[in-house]
Amino acid sequence: MNISSKFNLSNDIAVVTGGAGLLGLKHCEALLEAESKVIIMDLDKKALAKAADIFTDKYNGQFLALDVDVTKEKQIILAKEKIYKKFNSYPTILINNAAIDTKYETDNIVNKTRLEEFDLEQWNIEISVGLSGAFLCCKHFGIEMSKKSRGVILNISSDLGLIAPSQFLYEDKQLSNENQSVKPITYSVIKHGLIGLTRYMSTYWAKNGVRCNALAPGGVYNEHDKNFVNKLSNLIPIGRMARIDEYKSTIVFMCSDASSYMNGAVLVMDGGRTTW
User: Fold this and answer.
1) Taking the chain, what is the end-to-end CA distance rounded to the nearest angstrom?
2) pLDDT tens-digit readout, 101-142
3) Rounded-to-integer distance, Cα 276 and Cα 272, Å
4) pLDDT mean across residues, the chain
């Protein structure tokens, strides 16, 4: 088998949760380019429709866009059966990428990003999507992989799944010192938790041919405030944020036979930030 064939995913079916988001779209694109069939799962119907428009001309028949709430177990079970009906098989690849991009209330009276003001209800919502949703997808798609003795689960963590946030990055000059914005606690807890889930899953079905790894990417530039970009870039040995397409080849590597002996690993791709 030549090296290029190890990266080919033509015999695979991949599910990407949060697949219509910023990085999710790129994960889907990478898998489609590697010839995998791809199920784009997202709760945002408008974003799903946009994703379908992007991929239809080039990959028509190779993908399926599904409106799924990953916190609802019945919806995941139904999605699994829709996938089987479409492709006559269950997925062999799962990428747990779903997350909530919450816009928090921030002013000099109440700053909802701060631990002192963080609502339990908001905590439950975000943990439910980022961790419970990943668990449910592992449960229902992973069992089918184990029956086929073949599969890959990839959890999208973060460099902040390894280190604490540098809170000065989020400072707002319009807010008082005691009410400054911070990276919310849920982000760190979810990203650390996904690494824990990865360790567990990597041993659970390993003898059934199911591997599980995590990717810990660094921050991706997306028209961020210039001051934020400069401050974050100074924390990164490479000296910049990631470009949006820089994780595509890594996604294919981690989902393909090119990484066949990688299991239970956390691949850090953060420009060196966590090295310092």
Assistant:
1) 39
2) 888 877 667 888 999 999 999 999 999 999 999 999 999 999
3) 7
4) 96
Backbone angles phi, psi at 88, to 5 degrees: 60, 30
Q: What is the phi-psi region of residue 20: left when phi exceeds 0, alpha when psi lies from -120 to 50, beta otherwise?
A: alpha
- List the structure tokens of 71: 């916190």
φ, ψ of residue 35 in degrees (nearest 5):
80, 15
Question: What's the whole-model pTM score?
Answer: 0.96
Is 127 buried (19+), middle (13-18) or exposed (0-12) by CB count in 10 A?
middle
As a whole number, mean pLDDT of residues 13-19 equals 99
Distance CA 139, CA 130 (A): 15
Per-residue model confidence (pLDDT) at position 108: 64
Give the single-character DSSP code of 25: H
8 A C-beta contact, residue 114 and residue 38: no
Across 129-251, the runs of DSSP E, i.e. the strands, are: 151-156, 210-217
Return the residue matching tokens 């599904």.
66
Is domain 3-102+109-269 in CATH 3.30.450.40, yes or no? no
Cα 182 to Cα 170: distance, rounded to the nearest angstrom: 5
Contact (CB, 8 A) for 231 and 239: no
| Model pLDDT, residue 104 | 80
**Parallel/antiparallel/unpaired status of strands 13-17 and 37-42:** parallel
Backbone φ and ψ of 72, nearest 5°: -105, 110
CA distance 192 to 65: 29
For 74, left (φ over 0), alpha (ψ -120 to 50), or beta? alpha
Q: What is the mean pLDDT of residues 200-207?
A: 99
